[in-house]
């Protein structure tokens, strides 16, 4: 019964820790972008998507002597098998790519592993997230989801799922931040040494990023740095006190160039070693001496993942191109409509202008004609003459007579309305019409 209770406590604590890590990622609410190449990672990092090798927790140890004085808990783990110094290979598959093997990792011999390949929020970097554990369940090696954050002068959030951190942070300070996300009591024993191979791997990531960064324009260049740290802590797992090593790498890209691209991004990855009291150092020695888990992406998965990425990029580009074409056509149609409307409005305006011009000209001509007619009539009156119009045009004749006849060369005037020179005088006579002095009809 005691063994069953201990096993239940261990499994419950495992689920609690994994849930706490997942909750931590769900609470992160800032935006962040970063660049990462898919590569062979020598300290247990790789790939994309989701996949797992089937495994279940093995039996756990039984409670033994009481815990040391001054420490929480009431029992101590008792292991039935010594820690092996041998190693074995474990794989992570990708069900989204027909369950092909995405990565091969190295874990202590006799251990089991549960793992997935996932892209953590905010960072867009694919990493393995896994739990490897001993047969008796007393020892574990976990790699938690990557945590990312970002900052910029505008404060604009570009991605979701980012930690509430602003600026470059040291690995030691990040571990203090990480401790605040852990549930339950935590006793910090103190710092631990970081293996040289792990630090070299981290510095290599920063150096590789700076080499690629040197090829971009100045405004986009950022200084990449990497830092590592480790802590020894004690936590309570049910009725037991267990020791853990928290180790992290923090990689940051800081762009201090003035302008819209100023700011930076960081990501951090935490791995955890768990062992009963007094057993952690032995587990650390096995893991660090072999630089476990030696994560290596498989060539088959890299090719498949790259091909998928290219297809997704092409689909996104095709969708963007179609959208751009639709928007361009819409803008062109709007332009054509505007031009047609403008042409119609211009034509209407010109017609109005022409009509106004003609009306003004007619009015001006009428005014001029009226002025001219009046003036010419006054001239005729002053000279005791009148203007008449006949077959050969107009002529000025005496105003003393009411009727004027002409045969084209001669004039015959009379006040007798019944008088007609035709047949009396030689020639063909025509009665003229009196007009205004300027020749305009009366």
Q: Would you summarize the structure shown here?
A:
This protein has 442 residues and is α+β, with helices and mostly antiparallel strands. 33% of the residues lie in helices and 27% in strands.
Please tell me the overall pLDDT: 78
Helix content: 25-40%
Computed structural class: alpha+beta
Structure summary, number of beta strands = 17
Shape by Cα distribution: rod-shaped
Helix and strand sequence:
HEEEEEEHEHEEEHEHEEEEEE
Strand content: 25-35%
Distance, first to last CA? 136 Å
Our Rg estimate from Cα atoms comes to: 51 Å
Largest sheet: 8 strands, antiparallel
Query: Helical stretch count?
Result: 5
Q: What low-confidence regions span 5 or more consecutive residues with pLDDT below 50?
A: 1-74
Structure description:
By secondary structure, the chain is an alpha+beta fold. The chain has 5 helices and 17 strands. The protein has helices at 2-27, 171-179, 196-213, 280-289, 299-382, and strands spanning 87-94, 100-108, 112-119, 126-133, 140-143, 147-151, 186-191, 223-237, 240-255, 263-276, 296-297, 385-390, 393-398, 403-406, 411-414, 430-431, 433-435. Strands 3, 4, 5, 6, 7, 8, 9 and 10 form an 8-stranded antiparallel sheet that branches. It has a 3-stranded antiparallel sheet with strand order 1-2-11. Strands 13-12-17 form a 3-stranded antiparallel sheet, with helices on one face. The longest helix is centred in the last third of the chain and has 84 residues, at 299-382. The termini are far apart.
């Amino acid at each position: 019964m005691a063994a069953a209770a201990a096993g239940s406590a261990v499994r419950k604590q495992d689920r609690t820790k994994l849930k706490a890590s997942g909750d931590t990622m769900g609470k992160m609410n800032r935006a962040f972008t970063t660049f990462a190449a898919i590569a062979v990672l020598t300290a247990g990092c790789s790939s994309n998507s989701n996949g797992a090798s089937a495994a279940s927790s093995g039996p756990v140890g039984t409670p033994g002597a009481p815990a040391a004085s001054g420490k929480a808990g009431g029992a101590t783990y008792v292991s039935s098998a010594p820690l092996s110094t041998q190693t074995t290979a474990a794989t992570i598959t990708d069900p989204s790519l027909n369950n092909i093997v995405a990565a091969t990792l190295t874990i202590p011999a006799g251990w089991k592993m549960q793992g997935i390949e996932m892209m953590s929020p905010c960072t867009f970097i694919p990493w393995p997230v896994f739990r490897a554990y001993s047969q008796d369940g007393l020892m574990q090696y976990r790699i938690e989801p990557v945590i990312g954050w970002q900052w910029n002068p505008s404060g604009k959030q570009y991605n979701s799922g980012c930690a509430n951190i602003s600026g470059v942070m040291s690995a030691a300070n990040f571990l203090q931040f990480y401790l605040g996300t852990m549930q339950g009591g935590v006793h910090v024993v103190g710092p631990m040494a970081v293996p040289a191979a792990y630090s070299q791997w981290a510095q290599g990531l920063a150096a590789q990023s700076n080499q690629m960064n040197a090829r971009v324009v100045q405004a986009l260049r950022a200084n990449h740095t990497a830092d590592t740290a480790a802590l020894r802590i004690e936590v309570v797992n049910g009725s037991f006190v267990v020791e853990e090593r928290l180790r992290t790498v923090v990689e940051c890209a800081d762009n201090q160039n003035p302008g819209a691209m100023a700011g930076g991004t960081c990501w951090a990855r935490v791995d955890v070693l768990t062992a009963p009291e007094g057993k952690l150092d032995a587990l650390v020695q096995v893991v660090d001496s072999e630089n476990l888990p030696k994560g290596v992406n498989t060539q088959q998965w890299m090719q498949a993942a790259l091909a998928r990425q290219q297809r997704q990029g092409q689909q996104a580009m095709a969708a963007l191109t179609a959208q751009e074409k639709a928007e361009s056509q819409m803008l062109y149609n709007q332009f054509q409509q505007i031009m047609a409307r403008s042409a119609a409005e211009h034509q209407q305006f010109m017609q109005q202008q022409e009509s106004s011009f003609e009306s003004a000209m007619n009015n001006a001509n009428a005014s001029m004609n009226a002025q001219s007619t009046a003036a010419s009539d006054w001239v005729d009156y002053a000279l005791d003459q009148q203007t008449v119009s006949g077959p050969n045009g107009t002529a000025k004749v005496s105003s003393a007579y009411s009727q004027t006849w002409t045969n084209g060369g001669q004039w015959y005037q009379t006040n007798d309305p019944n008088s007609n020179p035709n047949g009396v005088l030689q020639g063909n006579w025509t009665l003229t019409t009196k007009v205004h002095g300027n020749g305009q009809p009366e």
